[in-house]
Amino acid sequence: MNNYKFWFVVGSQFLYGPEALAEVEKNGRAIVEGLNNSNNLPFEIIYKTTIKTSTETKEIVSVANSDKNCAGIITFCHTFSPSKMWINGLNLLQKPWLHFHTQFNREIPNEEIDMDYMNLHQSAHGDREHGFIGMRMGIPRKVVFGYWQDEKPQNEIGKWMRAAIGYSFSKNLKVMRFGDNMRDVAVTEGDKIEAQIKLGWEVNTWPVGTLVEYMNAVSETEIDLKLQEYEEKYEIATDDNETVRYQAREEIAIQKILDEEDCKAFSNTFQDLYGMKQLPGLASQNLMAQGYGYGGEGDWKVSAMTAIMKAMTSDLDGGTSFMEDYNYDFTKGLILGSHMLEICPSIAADKPKIEVHELGIGDREPPARLKFEGKAGPAIVASLIDMGGRLRLIVQDIECVKPPQSMPNLPVARVMWQPQPSFTEGTECWIIAGGAHHTVLSYDCDAEMMRDWARMVDIEFVHINKDSTAVELEHDLQLSDLVWNLRC
Ligand code: MN
Question: Is the pTM above the cut of 0.90?
Fold first, then answer.
């Protein structure tokens, strides 16, 4: 991730003479330096060139496309830069694109402004030409407007950068499935061909028996080391050492097979644990904490999204997890989210405890799992669903709270939240949009990042937020259906 850079390309032309072009380049470099020193961008920007001709546009785009460390390009027209000389280059573009509409100077200087100054600093003019061609060509691009030294546009660029990292990660993502989807469940299904065409995911199945062979090959020394890791990270609140060791064996084996196949996400199902004594609980939880995606009941879509959203925010410590909606408290207006076992400890408010309890489903031994409460604070839940012919990403803003009850007999990790705009309206919106019971819950990603990502991969995006109403959402979804059906 750390090798990713973003390329800054300035638009101009030969009309104003070499002195003006030298000034454009100097100012372009100053903007890049200012952005890099702002501490608001998670990745570095590199000044690349100032475009004066169609040939230069094609050249820089071709080089960007083939540079695996280039995660996206940022363009800005310091002067007027006629758009016809951008068309053939932009037609080749395969990287995420941000059009940063800014201006080198914050103010219009009263004494200094003359015709030369006006021509040199005319991004209000040049970026309109640039905006037109982006719109006319229908290339997905993010537009950010603001003064380059201000925090707001810097933060918007930063979020787009995270989405671009998620884009690159998505296009290289391999997902390992152990077993199929849970029998008869609809929302966890999906078109894996469509997912690969749009999102790049290679989703394939490995036999559970192969995983069991890997488990049998794990040494006691490896398990001892994993136990040390558990002791450092978690409170061991059980005497059942063998059960914890069995989870360690599962974790080591799953990680080995994932790494050998270069998979960053996996799914399994309690209906296919042939040869395994326990459903992986602690094992899956500790793998998620290391950045692997996970989805229960064969849900490869949510597994992949968990991995992508973790990759987008791997330098942040708010936390991101596989999640499932379970129960309502109508008196408090809260949703209880959890899973049978597999919630990522990155979202824990306090040190998680390792406990062993019966599991009512799956017909296996009681598994060890991490138990904790989620953090309080703003977060999102995200759900990718297959609409039959297209994919829809639904993101809802939520406010997580400290659970008001201790729920002493609930033996799993739990999170409670109020959906936006309110418990009632927000829940109705979620059901109307077709959001799944499986989601990715993240304190680090926000709706803007996910919208940017959805635009890059060209899928439908639905945002349920503080201003949403069920009536308007239903109408918006009908229009969206029309648009997407015309496009398919
Ligand atoms: Mn589930």
Answer: yes
